[in-house]
Amino acid sequence: MSAQWEHKVLTYKLKMKGFDYGQMEQDLNDLGRKGWEAVGTLAPSFGSGQAIELAVILKRLNS
User: Fold this and answer.
1) Which one, of 27, 16, 17, lies nearest residue 55 by Cα?
2) Residue 22 belongs to what H/E stretch?
3) What distance in Å separates the CA atoms of residue 30 and residue 56, rounded to the nearest whole number?
């Protein structure tokens, strides 16, 4: 039987002072302790290429 994965996507919006990297780190550490692993990111942009949102894709084995 092959491994069954579950996935999660975290999104972070651009704020006046930029992205809250401290919150991202805390979220990733908390989820990492629960078995989640970050496997990719997306940074949709508009106009001149300014990212307005960051998405972090995570996976873990389905229990």
Assistant:
1) 27
2) helix 21-33
3) 14
Percent of the chain at pLDDT exceeding 70: 98
Between residues 45 and 28, the one the model is more confident about: 28
Query: Please, are residues 55 and 42 in contact by the beta-carbon 8 Å criterion?
Result: yes
CA neighbor of 7 nearest in space, from 54, 58, 62 = 58
Written as one letter, the residue type at 39 is: V
- Between CA 38 and CA 35 the distance in angstroms is 10
Q: What is the Cβ-side half-sphere exposure of residue 16, based on CA atoms within 13 angstroms?
A: 0
Backbone angles phi, psi at 15, to 5 degrees: -110, 180
Task: Supply the pTM of this predicted model.
Answer: 0.83
